[in-house]
Specification:
Radius of gyration: 24 Å
Structural class: mainly alpha
Length: about 280
């Protein structure tokens, strides 16, 4: 028998209903039943699993609203990035293991969901370059998700900042840093969307050769900002804790991307100058 997402969802609802019914059957009253549920490890495991199922359902609903059906490449990229993100974030939060609580788990799951929507928005905007026709529905969805993600990221960065100022160093440092990185991704997606949209409008009139150059400069600036954020985060963590080993891999990837973007810009300028010199010579 094949286990599907629908079967797991139904089973979780049945298990949760049976757990709550059993608690009321034993204790007869509301308050003792709630105490029984919170004190029972098995009951809390069922409730936590039900919460994860509800989060999954919410993700699917929001995904269908803003992105519709995912393409095979988008689903593959999402699963690969999610796996690495879970490992890196879990490693990051070992620094603040004393802050572990149900609220902490909720914030972690919410961070993973927000990251997923950022990755989907990035892939969907990149698809514009390969699509001959872009519908109004596509533009509405992209502008809506960009506005939503930028608002969420900005609010959570400010919340993490003020929480750290008032209560001292905690896991909010990691959350704030993660949302700051995601905010740079939203900025990059917005720039690419504007450039692709302008390119689609120019196709009916004439070819627009400067789009690739603008994309290179945008990638260079965004990667530079990310490297600065990683450097600032590392210096802050070194002051309040030990060396952030979990930041080594993303920091290295950002530096490598910055290095590649810089040389791409340099090579692009060289190629343009050589072509201009060649045309002028003839």
């Amino acid at each position: 028998m094949r286990i599907t997402a629908g079967l797991v969802t139904v089973a979780s609802f049945v298990a949760t209903a049976a757990t709550i019914f059993n608690a009321f059957l034993i204790n007869k009253q509301f308050y003792p039943a709630m105490v029984y549920l919170t004190k029972s490890n098995a009951s809390m495991a069922v409730i936590y699993f039900q919460a994860l199922v509800l989060v999954y359902i919410s993700f699917q609903i929001i995904r269908s609203i803003f992105f519709g059906d995912l393409r095979a490449a988008e689903a593959e990229h999402l699963s690969e990035r999610a796996w690495h993100a879970v490992l890196e974030t879990c490693l990051a939060f070992t620094v603040f293991r004393d802050d572990f609580s149900p609220l902490f788990v909720l914030q972690f799951v919410f961070l993973l969901l927000i990251k997923s929507f950022h990755w989907l928005a990035d892939d969907r905007v990149d698809m514009m370059e390969r699509s001959p026709v872009i519908t109004i529905k596509f533009h509405v969805r992209i502008m809506a998700i960009i506005g939503l993600l930028s608002g969420v990221d900005s609010y959570l960065v400010s919340h993490a900042y003020f929480t750290t100022i008032l209560k001292g160093a905690s896991s909010q440092i990691v959350f704030g840093f993660e949302y700051a990185i995601l905010l740079t991704m939203v900025l990059h997606v917005t720039i690419k969307y504007i450039l692709h949209m302008h390119d689609h409008r120019m196709r009916t009139l004439q070819s627009w050769d400067n789009k690739a150059v603008y994309l290179l400069y945008a990638e260079l600036i965004i990667n530079f900002v990310r490297c600065m954020l990683y450097g600032a985060f590392t210096s802050v963590i070194l002051r309040v804790h030990t060396f952030p080993l979990f930041a080594v891999r993303p920091f290295y990837l950002s530096i490598r991307s910055l290095h590649k973007a810089f040389f791409d810009v340099v090579n692009s300028r060289r190629a343009i100058n050589m072509m201009n010199t060649y045309v002028f010579f003839f």
